């Protein structure tokens, strides 16, 4: 009997992809895996409500708190504060607290970025890599196409401009280079000239909700190896 695998989900917003994972887990589609913790970068993320509705422990880890006493002009100060944000996040994920190990903390087997809207620095990635903890990310674009934010809008506009004929969604491993990690799953979508941004966005989100489950299963299969 294989042990239950624990998934920690990072969010920043509505959490519809978190909800897709919660629903899939409840249907047994993730095997012996459960969403055991949620961390949000924003306090008003509705994904926190979704977690609470399913009794999933959550917490908020806000970059704004680290910037609070540092003027915008103080670039070095903000850079150091952001590194501390990443270091603390790594300790929270790996050990259960930014102050070090927490007794009976259950370390996750997989971290899923499901709409986590902050670039993770080596201060986070190196700590997580040291314990061989895989991280995957959902990105609403094809590999190497529209890295970063607003990818849906950018892909749609490029389609309207006749520059490309397809967009899509991918689940990829997270590395320091943003959205350039090895793709685990790619789902292509045709771009239609007669389609509004809202219509394309709806197709993207529907595809995401399938991809996040399939991609998480693939990542869990690698964990089990
Ligand atoms: N090191 C990595 N960090 C993250 C990755 C990654 O592949 N490597 N994926 C992202 C998720 N993401 C796109 O899929 C993404 C999210 C946010 C940003 C970004 O530029 N964020 C800005 C803030 C933007 C804002 O506040 O609107 C920032 O972090 O300063 C890029 C890509 C998760 N992290
Ligand atoms: N670059 C990362 C990125 O753009 N992620 C996007 O954030 C949204 C999260 O939605 P959700 O909070 O409803 O799951 C999703 O559309 C996801 O592709």
UniProtKB/TrEMBL annotation:
GO cellular component, one term: cytoplasm
Pathway: Purine metabolism; IMP biosynthesis via de novo pathway; N(2)-formyl-N(1)-(5-phospho-D-ribosyl)glycinamide from N(1)-(5-phospho-D-ribosyl)glycinamide (10-formyl THF route): step 1/1
Keywords associated with the record: Purine biosynthesis, Transferase
PROSITE patterns (UniProt xref): GART
GO biological process terms on file: 'de novo' IMP biosynthetic process; adenine biosynthetic process
Coiled-coil positions: none
Residue ranges of domain Formyl transferase N-terminal in the record: 6-214
GO MF entry, a single one: phosphoribosylglycinamide formyltransferase activity
EC number, UniProt record: 2.1.2.2
Transferase keyword on record: yes
Catalytic activity, reaction form: N(1)-(5-phospho-beta-D-ribosyl)glycinamide + (6R)-10-formyltetrahydrofolate = N(2)-formyl-N(1)-(5-phospho-beta-D-ribosyl)glycinamide + (6S)-5,6,7,8-tetrahydrofolate + H(+)
InterPro entries: Formyl_transf_N (IPR002376), Formyl_transf_N_sf (IPR036477), GART (IPR004607), GART_AS (IPR001555)
Family: Belongs to the GART family.
Name assigned to this protein: Phosphoribosylglycinamide formyltransferase
């Amino acid at each position: 009997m294989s042990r239950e695998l624990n998934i920690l989900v990072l969010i920043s917003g509505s959490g519809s992809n978190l909800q897709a994972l919660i629903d899939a887990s409840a249907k047994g589609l993730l095997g012996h895996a459960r969403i055991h913790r949620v961390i949000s970068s924003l306090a008003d993320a509705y994904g926190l409500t979704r977690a609470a509705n399913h009794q999933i422990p959550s917490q908020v880890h806000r970059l704004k708190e680290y910037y609070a006493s540092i003027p915008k002009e103080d670039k070095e100060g903000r850079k150091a504060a952001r590194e501390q944000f990443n270091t603390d996040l790594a300790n929270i994920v790996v050990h259960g607290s930014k102050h070090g190990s927490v007794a009976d903390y259950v370390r996750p087997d997989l971290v899923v970025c499901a709409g986590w809207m902050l670039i993770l620095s080596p201060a986070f990635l190196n700590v997580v890599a040291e314990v061989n903890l895989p991280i995957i990310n959902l990105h609403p674009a094809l590999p190497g196409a529209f890295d970063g934010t607003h990818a849906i809008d950018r892909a749609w506009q490029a389609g309207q401009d006749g520059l490309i004929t397809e967009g899509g969604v991918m689940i990829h491993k997270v590395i320091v280079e943003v959205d350039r990690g090895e793709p685990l799953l790619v789902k292509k979508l045709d771009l239609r000239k007669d389609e509004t941004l809202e219509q394309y966005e709806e197709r993207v989100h529907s595809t995401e909700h399938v991809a996040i489950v399939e991609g998480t299963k693939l990542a869990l299969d690698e964990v089990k190896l």
